[in-house]
Structures are given as C-alpha cells and as structure tokens.
Amino acid sequence: MTVLEQISKQTGQIALLIDPEKSVDKSPLIELVRKADFAGIHFFFVGGSTVHRKDIERVVSIIKQHSEIPVLLFPGASHQLSAEADALLFLNLISGRNPDFLIGHHVQCAEEVLGMNLEVIPTGYILIDGGKLTSVAYVSQTTPIPREQLSIARQTAIAGHLMGQRLIYFDAGSGANQHVPTALVKEIKATLPSPVIVGGGIRSVEAVSEMQQAGANVIVIGNKIEEDIDFLLDLRSFIRNDASMPNPNL
Ligand code: 1GP
C-alpha cells in the first residue's frame, strides 16, 4: 500500500511531527520514537521552518532504525530531504502568493527528488489564522486565511484539488492558539474526494476526536507531545477505542 493510500483509508489517524531542530539529542529521540510506536501512531512527519539537511537526515535515520511507522518529509524548504524517508509531502503553499513556496523551492530540488526512491505526494498546503504569528507564516512571508473566512479557505482547497493536489493540509501553524475550525474540515470532506490533513494547536484528545468526527484523515501533533510525552498514552487510548468502533467514513 502506498503512503497516500494509507492516509486515505481512514479518518482519525495520528501523525507525530518531529522538528529536528528541537530533537538534538539521540537518546530522548529514541525514547520518543519507541513511545510513539507503543501508542500506535500512524505516521511520523519530519520537518521545520529552518532545519538543515543533515539534521533531517539524522532524525529520519534514527526513526527508521527504531520503528516501521512510515516517515513523511514535511519540508520547510527545498533542501529538507532524506533518501531514507518513505514519502515527501510536496507542499504547495496555495493560501499564499509567494512564488518561492508555489514553485521556487520545487524547481531547486526537482531533479534530485525525481532520482530518489520517495513517494511524492502533491499537497495543497493551506495556512489558516490560528490567533498568533507562527514561524511558517513568518518564514514563508505569507498571510494565513482569516479563520472566519471559511469560504476563502473552501475556494482555495477546491482550486488546489482542481490543480491536481492529491492531499489538502490545513495548518494553523505550530503552536497556534486556536486550531483549524472543524467546520472547515467537515465542509471540505463533504465537497472534495481529497484526504485532509489538519494540524497546528491541537493539544487535547477532545480536539483530536472532533477532528476525527469532522472527517480529518490525519491529525498532526507536535508541540503538545514535545511538552508532555505522556500525551502519547492518551493518544494510545484514543487510537485503540477508535479502532474498535465501526468507522462510518469507510
Ligand atoms: C504544524 O501541524 C503542525 O505545522 C503541528 O503543530 O506543534 O501546534 O502541534 P503543533
């Protein structure tokens, strides 16, 4: 099964985002990977706004040595690659109007990516205002879509789909005060066949559950687990309970 098929096959899957800039030491990273494995999370995402390539490669390599969970590159720039990853979210920042994040970075790495044994997933990446200025908005020099303007977000996602994006990723940005509105996820899932990833500011099992109910295929969590590794145990309960319930979206 491809990674895209795994993402598509059910709602409420969990991705743990690891920012290699914050995972400097090897042993805490191995402990994190082991606990995530025990929790039964579905994907690792690796990337960040300002990470060097050697740190991406180091972190992906450690994860691959200690877990069979698929590793997806979630790059902040064209150099954030690793041949050991399973897939690359080839992000098109379609909520913004900065050509660097629509085509520039892609051109810089295109030939290398083509030669790598990576599953490349064209991803319509849409930033939604999460109540504070986040690194991704600052570094990409783009303005997130206002959270009350759901029609703009909807039109953006539809345009992305029509342009060939295979996934839609709504991100309120790492550490957002407010996560993406569940109403938006629900509306897009009712409108488009694309799987939906959602992240940014998700800090409770209740929020995870709401996103799952709204139809999000993958829910990305970074900061909350960095701050409290035992949150993985709560996620384990959520994943096990969810697996025992019939999924109306399948
Ligand atoms: C940000 O979706 C991710 O791109 C995760 O955000 O760190 O707030 O969980 P958090």
Percent in strands: 15-25%
Please give the share of residues in helix. Answer: 40-55%
Number of helices: 10
What's the CATH H-level homologous superfamily?
FMN-linked oxidoreductases
**Biggest β-sheet: strands ordered side by side in the sheet:** 1-2-3-4-5-6-7-8
Q: If you consult CATH, what is the topology?
A: TIM Barrel
- Tell me how many strands there are: 8
Task: Domain count, please report it.
Answer: 1
SS content category:
alpha/beta
How would a crystallographer describe the biggest sheet?
Answer: 8 strands, parallel, barrel
Order of helices and strands: HEHEHEEHEHHEHEHEHH
Distance between the termini: 16 Å
As a whole number of angstroms, the C-alpha radius of gyration is 17 Å
Low-pLDDT windows of residues: none
CATH structural class: Alpha Beta
Report the bound ligands by name, code or SMILES. Answer: SN-glycerol-1-phosphate
Shape-level CATH architecture: Alpha-Beta Barrel
